[in-house]
Amino acid sequence: MKFKSIAGKLFKYFLQGLIILAPITITLWAVLSLFSWIDSILPDFIHRLFPRLALDESGEPRRIPGLGFIVVIGIVLVVGYISSSFIVSKMVELFDNILEKTPGIKIIYTTIKDFFEAFAGNKRKFDRAVLVSIESPDIWRIGFITHEELTEFGLQDYISVYVPQSYAFAGHLYFVKKDRVRIITDISSTDSMKFAISGGVTQIEE
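^ thats the sequence. predicted structure below, dont judge the formating
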């Protein structure tokens, strides 16, 4: 009996430690993996452009920890900053139109572009959180309105709602009648997305 009690306590402590360490470990692993991957790109890229530049004693491309990551972040910041100017914005718009009209490439480009714009930027789509009833009038899911008019599909009084899946980088798109949707007003769209993806276990900020 005493052994079972000790084993039960140890198992309880193990679960508590796992709950604390697992999110921290997975987050650090993801960040460090991304850091290392980006960091490994720069030396090889510089070596291809300038074969005799930044070589170590053995003749291999010199790797400076953190430099690749800093350079990538800097490039992204610079592009974001200069894109606000009129001339650069027109050039980006021209290049954007070319990619969107190029057969084959436009499918990949527009899909990735729309995905990122759905979460951030001036064209952010997932900013109107709703409760949507799909299977049953008494069952509600968290979703996000993406289109308020679906006349091009031959549907009147319908809207399109994206419903994210819990613990998955995916979701489902539904065409539902407007009377089966309730706008969420007391919770931000960000908290609504976190609540849906976490399976309802995340805390809602007041």
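The chain has three domains: 1-79, 83-124, 129-197.
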